[in-house]
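Support case: magnesium ion complex. Customer-provided input:
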Amino acid sequence: MQGALGQLVDWLALDPATTALLMDFDGTLSEIAGSPELARPMPGVSRMLKTLASLLGVVGVVSGRPLSFLERHLLPSGDLNPEQGGYGSSPGRLVSSSGRLALMGYYGLEGIVDGRRFRDQRGAEWEGVAQAAFEAAVSAAPEAVLVERKPLGVALHWRQAPGSEDSALAAADEVSRRYGLPASRGKMSVELRALPDVNKGSAASRLARECKRVCYLGDDLADLEAFATLDIMGRSGLTSLKVAVGGVELPNEVLARADLHLEGPAAVRDALQHLTAKLDRRRRPAP
Ligand SMILES: [Mg+2]
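Agent response - structure generated as follows:
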């Protein structure tokens, strides 16, 4: 194992009990799909995350997806039932972790942390505005542009609408101004959302607060909020590692701010696999 992948695994394995491993979903744990609902984690990833959650201080996924989507694909049915405490314990684990994968849906507006669900009630105040903005975006955007309703607003995707970027952005700009929803760009998409302080940075900060080391992997502009949080935490003594994931679509800003670069979700999966094997070997008693 060489290069960035080896460096990442070594960094994570150095002091696992005090380490938080935080990851974006789309483009990091999953290939980007033509349509958002078709994205799936790389094969084996959900099982590896579950194992790693019992070996590291914190393992969490931080996404702009709804919590229900993350749960469906990362906590396979019958595997975990947080409300009934169904995670179980991890016999022989090395670390102080609860052994539970943390999920932060919709940038941390809703999630499961330590087996408990939460939802920021401020989201409910924006329901009406989000619905109105969604309907306005459906009317204003070209037909081929996918308009996705989000809890705090709306996203417009032109991955499957070649040549529609300018008109999609114009529609988004109009809706953004009319409803007072700030816009943020993503890969072939733009999202308009209320509560900009609920972001991947605030979610990462919440998950990593009891750790001494934190690693974040992401592939898009929204992940810069998490990178910035790691920089701030670093100034108060935390050790951080920022990993950019992706190939030709990886924004230059993300690559420029990262400490390491992995080529894509397959490389992330390989890193998780090597890390699991490495930590598992340590857990076993010497012959
Ligand atoms: Mg992403």
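The longest strand covers residues 239-245.

Case will auto-close in a few days if no follow-up is received.
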